[in-house]
Each structure stands twice: as structure tokens, then as C-alpha cells.
Automatic annotation (TrEMBL):
Pfam family, one: HATPase_c
Source domain of life: Bacteria
Record-linked PROSITE patterns: HIS_KIN
Organism from which the protein derives: Fischerella thermalis JSC-11
GO biological process: phosphorelay signal transduction system
Protein name according to UniProt: histidine kinase
Species lineage: Bacteria, Bacillati, Cyanobacteriota, Cyanophyceae, Nostocales
InterPro entries per the UniProt record, alphabetical: HATPase_C_sf, HATPase_dom, His_kinase_dom, Sensor_HK_Regulatory, Sig_transdc_His_kin-like_C
Length: 88
């Protein structure tokens, strides 16, 4: 999705979702949900914190919406600078 002032990238899944009480924590460094901690293969809890830092460094915003049992949608909004896109 693109407008004159920003580009929006949405990444959605149909996974287990994120509990409402955990939504405010997903961008914290090293935070992992209890279910993720018990998985044999898991991350370090840095991925979303890094994405947030990069997004903010570029003057953007990141947000998440989620429903338990239905999945999550992460939305990154970045400003468009002159010359970012070549005219077709």
C-alpha cells in the first residue's frame, strides 16, 4: 500500500495469535510468550525489537493487531522521501 507521504507494509499470518495482555510487550527486547519459551526451536526475542528500532530510525511506525486462534497482522509505516521511487 502506498500514498503520497508513506508506504505501508503489512505482514499477516493465520497462526495462534497473541493474547491481548501481551500485545504491549511484543516489541520489548528479549520478550517471548510463555508458549514460545517451551518450544524446542525458538528465537532470542530480538527480532521485533530490531524491526521496531530500524522502523523508528527511518521515521516510521510499527503496530500489531491480533486475535487468539486467528493470527496476527504487523504493520510497518515508513515515510516516502523524494527520489525514493522512480517515475514509470
Amino acid at each position: 500500500m502506498k500514498s503520497d507521504d508513506f508506504v505501508v507494509i503489512e505482514v499477516a499470518d493465520t497462526g495462534i495469535g497473541i493474547a491481548p495482555e501481551h500485545l504491549s510487550s511484543v516489541f520489548n527486547r528479549f520478550w517471548r510468550a510463555e508458549k514460545a519459551r517451551s518450544c524446542r526451536q525458538g528465537g532470542s526475542g530480538l527480532g521485533l525489537a530490531i524491526v521496531q528500532a530500524i522502523t523508528h530510525a527511518h521515521g516510521g511506525e510499527i503496530s500489531v493487531t491480533s486475535k487468539l486462534g486467528a493470527g496476527s497482522c504487523f504493520r510497518v509505516k515508513l515515510p516516502v522521501f523524494e527520489g525514493s521511487f522512480k517515475d514509470s
